[in-house]
């Protein structure tokens, strides 16, 4: 036997024993299906510690109530039932009061970003009743539930979860483990998803942190910046009632992107209730209203609102709330409303 054969044999036996020990150890399963792959991606892209990421995700819990809420959205209602949810007198009055209390800030931000300030107010009015109802779900629970347990839209919500884990602390309103928001994982008064926080939220107050829960300048400017980056035109039309004559040409399904010049729709039998630029690109939207079918011309700014929420009923609620708020502000300024 060669002189070095015995040590090699001992080493081989030791390696075999080590392999057997490792093989006998229990395999640690993901707390959530697909967690390990996501952690590896985030660690690769950001350099964050995988152990810390896993510890964070291990705390998150799948919430059946979130899955249930996703399956009964308000947008499944007809316009006749959807509109009264958001166009209440209280929501209008609160919007008027909010606008008047924060007018200087709103109008400065509106001018800075080129966005009509009443629409900034209407967004936070529809989303969270001016910051009163921002959601009680843990954001991690919401995005883990939808990213890992909701196959219908899992790719989208998994991406939102990945972005959330990658955001620096300076872009979050507080510790990630305790952030709260909607059942869909949206945060703050404007209900921004993580991708929107990353791409559109701004530190308007200049304190080095984007705080969409506690900093009114950050909240309002982030909504304005979102609209500006999506093509809002200050002072441009949003939506206007149309009246169809008996021979109006059927136009098929509504398209969010304006399809034709207004004068073309007039030629096809759809008349505006007000004077509008005949060359303005528009689409025709039909809604099931309280008194029957309603026809609406929708324009570029309406399409911008649908990038916030793709439902045309949502965009119409924002538009009508913004109009009601501005009417109320004018009335109050002239001594006809609440002070």
Automatic annotation (TrEMBL):
Official protein name in the record: Lytic murein transglycosylase B
Domain Transglycosylase SLT: 38-323
A Pfam family hit: SLT_2
Keywords: Signal
Keyword Signal: yes
Domain of life: Bacteria
Keyword Transcription among UniProt keywords: no
Gene3D superfamilies found in the cross-reference section: 1.10.530.10, Bacterial muramidase
InterPro entries, per the entry: Lysozyme-like_dom_sf (IPR023346), Lytic_transglycosylase_MltB (IPR011757), MltB-like (IPR043426), SLT_2 (IPR031304)
Residues annotated as signal peptide: 1-29
């Amino acid at each position: 036997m060669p002189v070095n054969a015995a040590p090699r044999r001992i080493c081989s036996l030791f390696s075999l024993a080590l392999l057997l020990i490792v093989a006998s150890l229990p395999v640690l399963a993901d707390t959530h299906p697909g967690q390990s792959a996501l952690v590896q991606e985030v660690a690769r892209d950001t350099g964050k510690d995988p152990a810390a990421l896993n510890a964070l995700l291990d705390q998150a819990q799948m919430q059946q109530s979130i899955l249930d809420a996703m399956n009964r959205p308000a947008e499944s209602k007809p316009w006749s039932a959807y509109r009264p949810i958001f166009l209440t007198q209280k929501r209008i009055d609160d919007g008027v009061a909010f606008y008047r209390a924060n007018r200087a800030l709103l109008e400065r931000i509106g001018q800075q970003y080129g966005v009509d300030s009443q629409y900034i107010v209407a967004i936070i009015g529809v989303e969270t009743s001016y910051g009163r109802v921002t959601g009680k779900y843990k954001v991690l629970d919401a995005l883990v539930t939808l990213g890992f347990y909701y196959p219908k839209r899992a790719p989208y919500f998994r991406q939102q979860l990945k972005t959330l884990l990658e955001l620096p602390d300076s872009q979050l309103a507080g510790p990630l483990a305790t952030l709260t928001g909607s059942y869909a994982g949206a945060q703050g008064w404007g209900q921004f998803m993580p991708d929107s926080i990353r791409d559109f939220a701004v530190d308007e107050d200049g304190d080095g942190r984007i705080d969409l829960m506690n900093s009114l300048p950050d909240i309002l400017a982030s909504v304005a910046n979102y609209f500006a980056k999506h093509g809002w035109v200050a002072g441009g039309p949003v939506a206007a009632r149309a009246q169809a004559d008996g021979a109006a040409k059927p136009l098929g399904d509504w398209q969010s992107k304006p399809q034709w010049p207004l004068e073309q729709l007039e030629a096809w039998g759809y008349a505006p209730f007000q004077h509008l630029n005949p060359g303005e690109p528009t689409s025709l939207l039909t809604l099931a209203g309280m008194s029957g079918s309603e026809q609406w011309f929708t324009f570029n700014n309406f399409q911008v609102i649908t990038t916030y929420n793709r439902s045309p009923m949502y965009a119409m609620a924002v538009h009508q709330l913004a109009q009601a708020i501005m009417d109320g502000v004018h009335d109050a300024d002239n001594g006809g409303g609440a002070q």
